[in-house]
Amino acid sequence: MSLDWRHRAACRDIDPELFFPVGNTGPAIAQIEEAKKSVCLA
Predict the structure, then answer these.
(1) Which residue range(s) make up the domain with 16?
(2) pTM for this structure?
């Protein structure tokens, strides 16, 4: 088992588009914030 945090990260199986949507205003910012709350705080 690797000690690298990426192998244990809660977000390892999540679509990267959730964290890196097209655009950086309005709905895209809201999507990033929701992703952080729902995945990273789990």
Answers:
(1) 5-40
(2) 0.54
> Do 27 and 14 touch, CB atoms closer than 8 A?
no
Residue 29, both tokens? 């910012």
Q: Measured over all CA atoms, what is the biggest interatomic distance in the chain, rounded to whole angstroms? A: 40
Q: pLDDT (tens digit, 9 = 90+) per residue, 1-42?
A: 567 888 888 888 888 888 887 888 888 888 888 888 888 776
- Total domains in the fold of the chain: 1
Identity of the residue numbered 26: G
Distance CA(22)–CA(17), nearest Å, equals 8
Question: Residue 9: what residue type?
Answer: A
